[in-house]
Amino acid sequence: MPPFLLSDDVEDSLEGSFSWVQDPSGTLRHVSGTKLSEDSGITVEDVAYTLKPSDIELSGESLGSGACGQVKKGIIVATGQGIAVKDIKIDDSAKKNMLLTELKNLVAAEPCPHLVTWFGGFITRSIVHLVLELMDLGSLRSLSKRAHKLGDPRIPHPHLARISLSSMTGLRFLHEMHVVHRDIKPENILHNTLGEVKITDFGISRSLDATMAMAGTQVGTQVYMAPEMCLGSDYNFAVDLWSYGLVLYELATGVFPLDGSTIPELFMSIMEKPEPRLSPEYPSDLCDFVAQCLTRDAIQRRDSPYLLMFPFVTENVEPDEVFAQYLTTLS
User: Fold this and answer.
1) Domain membership flag for residue 163
2) Residue 315, SS3 per DSSP
3) Are residues 166 and 291 in the same domain?
4) Among the ranges 58-72, 79-93, 218-232, which has the highest mean pLDDT value?
5) Same structural domain for residues 86 and 198?
6) What is the CATH classification number for the domain harbouring 59?
7) DSSP string, 25-79
8) pLDDT (tens digit, 9 = 90+) per residue, 105-142?
9) 247 shares a domain with 118
């Protein structure tokens, strides 16, 4: 399957010849063919997603915010299905560019059950509303907080394996589509009462032209940023694996492994101090998996297809239903 996303050259030129135009009716059009309307929804890659404002009902409950905007809870009126509605205020060119990236990434993500999907959206004035799959238990950050409230912030090994298998499968899909996420962190991995785990927030993802192609833009959340990104060096899909290693370490121990109280201290932790390693009290397969992710040398760091062959995510991994039962104990 060819990549749906923008090549680096196209993405970098969006503020130039590739531009947006909003007509008197409020419809927003991009020269690539993407169109957003209040009445007819969103068209991406010549596919129309025809939701309109009257098709959804908001509950007023906030689900938080992402790289692009606020997220609210609602339902699709015709079916009663729960949804998350992401509001993106596109009042400058940078936000419009992030929106275009996210739309194309959402289209690309549709075949993968480990990436949050969408149902469509529309525009009202300068606000774009994306209607997304509802992951009703929120992010892995909220999972960690719920566990902490019950006295032990550490997520047990079997559940970490379930989370990692889903997350790695989602990352493998993105990487096979030549997409690097660039902002893997607990807030961008969601879960629900069915025990499903899915990656979200594709607004700053970037398409790479080939499997080992490089990018050079510093983006993402600093504390989860890979060493090569901190240096401003070229990077590839391996940055997502470093970030996931930090997420997994944090879930396993309840403690973030790097000293990030100041930017210089964070930089030293990422670039100079020993790579984070779990202590021997943790299962060896988990320790090995984390170590493979948190390898400072990006060339030596394992990729998602390789990690999906590790015993940690191949041997006796619990089904979603068992993870779902554990989640009920945290409510």
Assistant:
1) yes
2) coil
3) yes
4) 79-93
5) no
6) 3.30.200.20
7) TS-EEETTS-EEETTTEEEETTEEE---GGGEEEEEEEEEE-SS-EEEEEEETTT
8) 899 889 999 999 999 999 998 889 999 999 999 999 99
9) no
262 with 123, same domain: the answer is no
Q: Is residue 5's pLDDT more than 60?
A: no
Residue 229 lies in a domain: yes
Q: List, by residue number, the catalytic residues.
A: 183
189: closest CA among 223, 214, 209, 162? 162
Amino acid at 199: I
The 10 Å Cβ neighbour count of residue 309 is 10
**Token pair of 297 as six digits:** 């040398």
Give strand pairing partners of 40.
none
Q: Where are the alpha helices (H) located in the chain, listed in sequence order? A: 8-12, 93-109, 140-149, 157-176, 227-230, 238-253, 263-271, 284-293, 304-307, 311-314, 320-328
Task: Name 300's Cβ contacts closer than 8 Å, sequence gap at least 6.
Answer: none
The pLDDT value recorded for residue 188 is 93
Residue numbers of the domain that contains 305: 140-328
> CB atoms < 10 A from the CB of 70, how many?
15
Q: What is the mean pLDDT of residues 6-32?
A: 64
In the chain, what is the straight-line distance between the N-terminal and C-terminal CA atoms, in Å? 41
Among residues 133, 150, 180, which one ends one of the domains? Answer: 133
In terms of domains, do 253 and 150 share one? yes
Residue 162 region, left (φ>0) first, then alpha (ψ -120 to 50), else beta? alpha
| Residues 235-277 pLDDT 10s | 789 999 999 999 999 999 999 999 877 888 888 999 999 999 9
> Is 0.85 surpassed by the pTM of this model?
yes
